[in-house]
Design a protein that fits this description.
This protein has about 450 residues and is α+β, with helices and mostly antiparallel strands. It folds into three domains: about 50-310, DD-peptidase/beta-lactamase superfamily (Beta-lactamase), CATH 3.40.710; about 315-405, Peptidoglycan synthesis regulatory factor (PBP3), Domain 2, CATH 2.60.410.10; about 415-440. Helices cover about 35% and strands about 20% of the residues. It is built from twelve helices and 17 strands. The protein has helices at about 5-25, 30-40, 75-90, 100-105, 125-135, 140-150, 150-165, 200-215, 220, 295-310, 395-400, 415-440; strands at about 50-55, 60-65, 95-100, 120-125, 225-230, 235-240, 255-265, 265-275, 280-290, 310-315, 325-330, 335-340, 345-350, 360-365, 365, 375-380, 405. A six-stranded mixed sheet has the order 14-16-17-12-11-15, with helices on one face. A five-stranded antiparallel sheet has the order 2-1-9-8-7, with helices on both faces. Strands 3-4 form a two-stranded antiparallel sheet. It is globular, with a radius of gyration of 29 Å. It is an enzyme of class 3 (hydrolase). GO terms for molecular function: serine-type D-Ala-D-Ala carboxypeptidase activity. Its EC number is 3.4.16.4. Pathway: Cell wall biogenesis; peptidoglycan biosynthesis.
Length: about 450
């Protein structure tokens, strides 16, 4: 026979066992638990990795993405960005001639990634750029840095300043090439924070800025072969180190960039990008263990992205968003202005979740005058399970849903109208207060 006390004891131990079993789940915030279960098991053999949709910066996969590691020649992505920016600002031209100095000749020695530049050799900026983007040539990269920044040391300052602007919080650039400081001898630029480091997330941020601001870059990075010193007694065939571009060993449909990297400290790294069926993804793998494995691991990420996500039109341009139909206007002829979406909202959505996303308007008060089409708010998307998606940076999340814009102009009100409006408001407020006082008495 079981006594009442024994039953209570058994019940107590069952309750404790149940509590211990579910305590870890109870202690994890619901959003975090959902995010963890949403991460697929891709069995990547890497130190860190990330996969994002290029237009919005929405993260599709991540692993140890915030840990900084040596990036090797992936550093050159920032050099590429700053060169394009200098070209755009007319500080440098594509046909500008550059002469190789002693440092370039040092980097041009056989044994590293170079186009074997000799002291005094001249080439155009475009030729050096192609050598950098296709062949990862350190000697060509250094000369570009010197041309844009005046010296590599000053160019490195530009690199770190731009990284800060981009929100790359786990990055430090010491050289323009990614070449380790310890191997540069007398040519090593001064550094007070050690050697180059970058996280996978930061590499993805940089790649996103690069391919969305200067997409013409991809016309160069997808070239499988190119001749350097074409038509001279000493031509050099440059085979693209990115073996995922068309015709090369690990070719992947839609792959057209972006930058490989390898040093003893970094292992084999790769920032890749590919586009299929209207969706472009950016991937980063760091610390793989062989030349080919970085492409094999990248292919896993690409396969996952393209098989599970697509770009879906969620909102058409010129439509109101519930809860954000109007914005309050101060000092205007009208007190409100109607708001509509400023562009078509096309968004990366996981298969089967096409109807899960709900738009949420974020509207700010405006001051007249207001012009038609002026941005007065944003759209935030809430996805499956009521969770917001994760993005590379807060600014990417703010831009991902698009803008809410004024449907029409609102002129600034004259002083007489504003004065009269203020008087009416004051009187209304006064009587409202008196009414409240009277109501309080009874």
């Amino acid at each position: 026979m079981i006594t009442r006390g024994k039953k209570l004891t058994e019940t107590f131990f069952i309750a404790v066992a149940f509590l211990l079993a579910f305590l870890p789940v109870m202690l994890v915030p619901s959003g975090q638990a959902w995010a963890q279960t949403a991460t697929p098991a891709l069995n990547l053999n890497v130190k860190s990795a990330i996969l994002v949709e290029a237009k919005t910066g929405k993260i599709l996969y991540k692993y140890n993405e915030n840990q900084p590691f040596a990036p090797a020649s992936m550093t050159k992505m920032m050099t590429e960005y700053l060169l394009h920016e200098a070209i755009k600002n007319k500080k440098v031209t594509w046909d500008q001639k550059v002469t190789a100095d002693e440092y370039a000749a040092f980097l041009g020695k056989p044994g590293g990634s170079s186009v074997l530049l000799a002291l005094g050799e001249q080439h155009t900026v475009r030729e050096l750029y192609e050598a950098m983007a296709i062949y990862s040539a350190n000697d060509a990269t250094y000369l570009i840095a010197k041309t844009v920044g005046g010296s590599e040391a000053d160019f490195v300052k530009m690199m770190n300043k731009k990284a800060k602007e981009f929100g790359m919080t786990q990055t430090y650039f010491a050289t323009a090439t990614g070449f380790p400081l310890k191997d540069l001898g007398q040519f090593a630029p001064p550094s007070d924070r050690g050697d180059n480091v970058m996280s996978a997330r930061d590499a993805a941020i940089l790649a996103k800025e690069l391919v969305t601001t200067y997409p013409e870059l991809l016309e160069t990075t997808k070239i499988p072969h190119k001749m350097f010193r074409q038509g001279t007694p000493h031509p050099l065939k440059m085979d693209n180190w990115n073996w995922m571009v068309p015709t090369l060993v690990k070719q992947y449909p839609g792959a057209d960039g972006l930058k490989t990297g390898h040093t003893d400290d970094a292992g084999y790294c790769f920032t890749g990008t590919a586009e299929r069926n209207g969706i472009r993804v950016i991937s980063v793998v760091m610390g793989t263990n062989s030349f080919l494995s970085r492409f094999t691991e990248t292919a896993k990420l690409f396969d996952y992205g393209f098989s599970n996500y697509k770009m879906v039109p969620l909102l058409a341009k010129g439509n109101p968003v519930p809860g954000g139909e109007k914005a309050t206007v101060s000092k205007g002829t009208d007190k409100e202005v109607e708001l509509v979406t400023g562009q078509d909202l096309v968004y990366p959505v996981r298969n089967g979740e096409e109807k899960a996303y709900k738009p949420k308007a974020v509207v700010k008060e405006a001051t007249a005058p207001i012009k038609q089409g002026q941005a007065l708010g944003t759209v935030k998307l809430v996805g499956a399970n009521g969770q917001a998606d994760e993005f590379l940076r807060p600014v990417d999340e703010q831009k991902a849903g698009g803008t809410l814009v004024a449907k029409n102009d609102v002129d600034e009100a004259g002083w007489l109208r504003l004065t009269f409006r203020a008087i009416i408001g004051f009187i209304g407020g006064l009587f409202g207060s008196l009414g409240g006082m009277i109501k309080g008495l009874f």
